Amino acid sequence: MGAVHIPRLVISAPHGRSGKTTVAIGLAAAFARRGLRVQPFKKGPDYIDPSWLGEAAGRPCRNLDLFLMDADRALETVACACQSADLALVEGAHGLYDGLDGDGANSTARLARLLQAPVVLVVDATRMTQSVAALVLGFRDFDPGVQLAGVIANQVSSPRHRAKLADALARHTGIPLLGALPRDPSLSIPDRHLGLVPRDEDDGLLPVVERVRAAVEASVDVEALLGLARGAPALPVGPHCPERMPPAQVRLAIARDRAFTFYYMENIEALRAAGAELVCLDTLGDGALPDVDGLYLGGGFPEMFLDELEANEALRADIRAAVGEGLPVYAECAGLMYLARRIAWRGRSAAMVGALPCDVEVTERPQGHGYVRARVTGANPCFPVGTELRGHEFHYSRVVNLGPARFAYRLERGQGVADGRDGLVVGNVLAAYTHLHAAGTAGWAESLVAQARAHQARRPAREAR
User: What is the full DSSP assignment across 158-174?
Assistant: First the structure.
């Protein structure tokens, strides 16, 4: 095994809602403005924070999750993504030591140890002065294997407040205060039921990145953070990165618009590596399905665009007809919702594709939230029976009025569609609430492309009829 040198930082916090996303966005933009090629990462399965980190850095953000992928694949992801980068910036999730169990499995701390990366703790300093030292001491000593290298205070009320925080840290911890962001509502990105509003949904929100960058540059020691990143040791990993994509054998439509924004870069790359040309589909504006051999519908917020989705009757009818003719379709969460007969939300009901024998109701409370362990128990277009899958779900919607249907997955952890089952199968459609990551789901992309190739081979005979 070789080694690669990648300057890197992990941005974490004592708990969620401390401001680490704001700090990470600001740092990514500030480093990029200095001419550095910043590769952002997000710990965990989240799609929304990565959309903003990618915007700030100017290159797609990638996810690192030790539940969805093993440690070797996580290291390989970092090494491959950073081949053309000067700096890796990793935003943690929840609190630094929060994980799936009492051992902190899948925590940001576990990831930081794997990456041998210095950690900067973002602390919400609201109504806090000397207590910051006690808090930071606890985080420093909880796991000596984690290199807690600095603190950035958030919600700081005044220069005097900042001075007290810095003095407490210097006097009791020896860990430097590397920044103090002021209280400023203009630095916040609006949020709603699943978190922040995704970057691709509203271009009117983009100026917040510039505001956050300016605030970070004015109140954070960016050069000191860069020095910490450059002091990280070489990573013991030999990247196995594809040098070039093979020629495309099939064409897959992929819904990429304001309603469908949740896709992992690794999933897109895995499909291309398996021989797919990806053709973007706008479910809000395109009047017909392109000439394709399959369809990939990812996650997003179709409930926010009910009128526009319903108004595009021509596309909905085209997709429904293609499904009836055997088009392979892989759909996750929002994709499942779109393929249903109708979506109902807050007194409004709108017609959708109608390819699945069910309706969908969006509620005011989560219907499924967390990691998923599944076993494939039913025939489906993508996975052999007996396959074990790991994924995640986060949805406020639920399937109602379900007619006769087959399920592909039995869940050992998670909610899915109903009664511990997920993965509705209708013809060559596999539609589930479970999101899968290609880095931890062997064969997914290859199976979808194989289905598309088989459909492609059948098409001349079908068109001749």
Answer: -HHHHHHHHHHHHHHT-
Q: 254 lies in which domain range? A: 250-464
> Is 100 part of any domain?
yes
What's phi and psi for 75, nearest 5 deg? Answer: -65, -40
Q: In this structure, what CATH number is given to the domain that contains residue 67? A: 3.40.50.300
Residue carrying structure tokens 């690669």? 4
Q: Is residue 102, in this structure, part of any structural domain at all?
A: yes
Kindly list the distances between the CA atom of residue 95 and the CA atoms of 122, 196, 270, in Å, as whole numbers in the listed order.
10, 18, 31
Which residues, at least 6 apart from 416, have a Cβ–Cβ distance to it below 8 Å?
A: 368, 372, 374, 393, 409, 422, 423, 432, 433, 434
Q: Which of 61, 80, 333, 358 is catalytic?
A: 333
Q: How many domains does the chain have?
A: 2
According to DSSP, the β-strands at 348-351 and 359-362 are unpaired
Within this chain, do residues 389 and 438 fall inside the same structural domain, yes or no? yes
Please say if the pLDDT value at position 451 is more than 60. Answer: yes
**Phi, psi values for residue 52, rounded to 5°:** -80, -35
Dihedrals phi, psi of 353, to nearest 5 degrees: -70, -45
At residue 41, the 3 state secondary structure works out as strand
pLDDT in tens, 300-350: 999 999 999 999 999 999 999 999 999 999 999 999 999 999 999 999 999
The dihedral through the CA atoms of 191, 438, 229, 128 has a sign that is positive
333 in catalytic set:
yes
Residue 457 sits in a domain whose CATH number is 3.40.50.880
